[in-house]
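User: Structure tokens for both sequences below?

Assistant:
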Amino acid sequence: MVIILKDGATKTQVNDLMDWLTRFDVKTNLVEGVHSKIIGLIGDTTGIDIESVQSQKIVEAVKRVQEPYKNANRRFHPDNTVIEVRGRKIGGGALNVIAGPCSVETEEQTIKTAIAVKEAGATMLRGGAFKPRTSPYAFQGLGKEGIDILKKAREETGLPIVTEVMDLSDLDLFEDVDIIQVGARNSQNFTLLKALGRCDKPVLLKRGLSGTLQELLMSAEYIMSEGNTKVILCERGIRTYETATRNVLDLASVPLLKQKTHLPITVDPSHATGVASLIEPCALGAIAVGCDALEIEVHIDPQHAWSDGAQSLTPEQFTATMEKLRAMAEFCGRPIDTAEN
């Protein structure tokens, strides 16, 4: 970190500032130029709040030399993190495909979908038991009953289950869930993220609605700083001025994140585009740029889905898409995970 001081800063003020900075277990180095004075900090500066430093009377500007996230940073963890989930390995080189309905509606609907996606080659089952909806009058999910249905689908198929937590008060219900998903709206719910950091369970963390990559990594840092290193990042599209699709899928974020972090990366083309016909080409592109997993919505009857039917594939469409995804994954040297549970 580099701190540029204002003109006229006295020696006493500079010494007081340097004494204050040493409380953060960093070394300070004062460089006095002809026209300015600069304090360089050496050590781990991730615990220093830039705004607190900036608020000091003699400080002109503050610049970080390193990123503010440490646990998620590839610089401190050069090897890729591999997260094992019931025999599946996310980040281990093979591609995982997480598929299932947007919402858990009934036991029959969920189990039929689970069987269909497994037969097509999916490696994990997704389904929303709790649903954050823009309208308070829209279907909000079955809650605990939805989680119980997902567990029955797991018993039937052996597929690990992925479902979203919305509120800290519901966290106990997720004890037997394989991967806890944090949706875009909760990506900066820091109280929830810290609680998930105290869980020994994989967390699939989605990018915020208009979140930057640094904000996504800092959200991951909240989880990891509490001790849970099993974090999977998810690019699910961001909101821009473009309205042709539900969101704008940022495929460039995948290779960029690969440079910045060791955490595995998932891409969700369903929520990103909101259009079923765009899921396949975007999923193919996601594999090409290096994602570790895909999350795709599949429903046995999209036209009558209780939520997000327009972005859901039928089992037949998903089967056809999986054939192309399998070919792309093989071509890229990262075949779809075939581990059996």
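Moving on to the next sequence.
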Amino acid sequence: MRTVSAEEVRQLLPMREAIGIVRQAMIEVARGKAKLPLRSVVELEGNKKLGVMPGALTDPLVYGVKLLSLFPDNPARGLSSHTGTMILFDPDTGAPALAVDADALTAIRTAAATASATDALARRDARTLAIIGTGEQAETHIEALCLVRDLTEIRISGRTTDRAEAFVTRMLTHNPGLPLQAVQSAQEAVTGADIVCTVTSSSEVVLRGEWIESGCHVNAVGASIPAMQEIDREMLLCAETFVDYRPSALAQAREIIDALAEGAITEDHIRAEIGEVHEGSATGRSGREAITLYRSLGIAAQDLACAEAVRRKLDS
């Protein structure tokens, strides 16, 4: 079984290509050409978790499983909060064929999915981006979103102002032309923003609907299990809501689960899966003044499609 390092993943899966790959994967999901059991999570000591994400794309057959540790304190050690391995199996023999670094794969495919959704849902003239979070996903999301919109202002909010400022300094060292600025609070970051991304591992709300202005597009990305929550009830209620995969959203997005249980919404509040918008079977934002929300849980189909693209390049 061949092993693919994080550096090889970054070389073989450039972000622009990844956006197209994930977009097509989401179309395949919408067409029923994927088998996606819900993510399983093993609770470890403290706030640490082990996630298991199996899945298959069926046309042609690509199947495998991602094993991912979620250690929220890792960034303080200079490590990714998401670390693990994606294993692809040979569809002819069933043997393990490829082990792909899951840190880099997850960072790239998640940002690519957000960028693809943003391209479909955000206003074409969106120019101001707010990022809540200062980890690896913040970095890859900036890279990806700059490819789908001509951004003139990028505001960064972190758990502390010092973290936001350190993030901006680090990013500008390698990307001196980026229009980055650190701000003191999430509310300051999102006020007047055209696009907002939450990319935290928070178990508490970091984004409130009352802060969001008409015409904004929001990507809620960081909370992938019910123990985590980034957006409040008002954010969900005020937005035209789109998801990556309905079964995941209904079972693992805490704000959706709670709103359904309390009768605040019905399942029809989810307007469509993003793949349905991509393929044209569902419409995106209803108008210029609408607030749109892409609720991302992350699904194995995205990992499989990106890992398969890596495999094909290795074999070419």
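User: Anything stand out in the second?

Assistant: The two ends are 17 Å apart (CA to CA).
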